[in-house]
Amino acid sequence: MADQRRDGRDVRGSAQEAGTAEGRAVPDETARAWAALVATARRTVADGLVVGTSGNVSVRVGDTVLVTPSGVPYERLAPADIVGVDLTGRQVLGTLTPTSELPMHLAVYRATGARAVVHTHAVHATAVSTLVREVPLIHYMAADLGGPVRVAPYATYGTEELAENTLQALTDRTACLLQNHGTITYGTTLDQAYDRTAQLEWMCRVWLTASALPGLSPTLLTETQVNQAGQRLKGYGQQR
């Protein structure tokens, strides 16, 4: 059952429960961040962005990066399953092995102002990663990701080579595709990183759908048009 751990305990993962890790006290801020991370990871499954234990999520709290563990279904994660590393990759919280994509996550944190990172194997975005070197400018929301979304060259998962390829593709961007692999986005919050992942998947789906009609090619925007939209997006929504 989704809310049952292997030992039968309820693992709904509220911040109130997330107060210990292997018997040691965890600061409230860290406990709340872990609960939010688990909720985001479960959302990637519910929204069809990952299958099984593919993909991973992380969030930074001070100099500690909380990450999903390797090979553990998200519905099984409990408050006591917290996993945390420092920016060098040394494990400082928990006993479960961190995600195999830890080098990629840490590279993003060290090189950018990211506070959260989401990596998925979203279907349409992964399909697009096999076809082009850059996501065609099918929609102005590319501006919210920093401009045309690049595709990082393929490298074996979990390697420093993939981490380096990812950083190159993320230059002046908050999202990129990973060739024959998936997506990675980052933001100042988990919600922002997740929303960027969903937006990227949607854009890739739109382009694939428009490109599927025989004899027709979708119209694309220019970088100037996308930049103009980006300026307007800065004032979008409720200003505080």
What does this structure look like?
The chain is α+β, with helices and mostly antiparallel strands and 240 residues long. The chain has helices at residues 28-46, 102-111, 123-129, 160-169, 190-211, 223-233; strands at residues 20-21, 24-25, 56-61, 64-67, 84-86, 91-93, 116-120, 151-152, 175-178, 182-187. It is built from six helices and ten strands, in the order E-E-H-E-E-E-E-H-E-H-E-H-E-E-H-H. The strands form two sheets. The protein has an eight-stranded mixed β-sheet, with helices on both faces. Helix 3 (123-129) crosses helix 5 (190-211). The protein is globular, with a radius of gyration of 18 Å. Mean pLDDT is 90; it is low at 1-18.
Main features:
10 strands; 240 residues; globular; 33% helix; 6 helices; two-stranded antiparallel ribbon; eight-stranded mixed beta sheet; alpha+beta
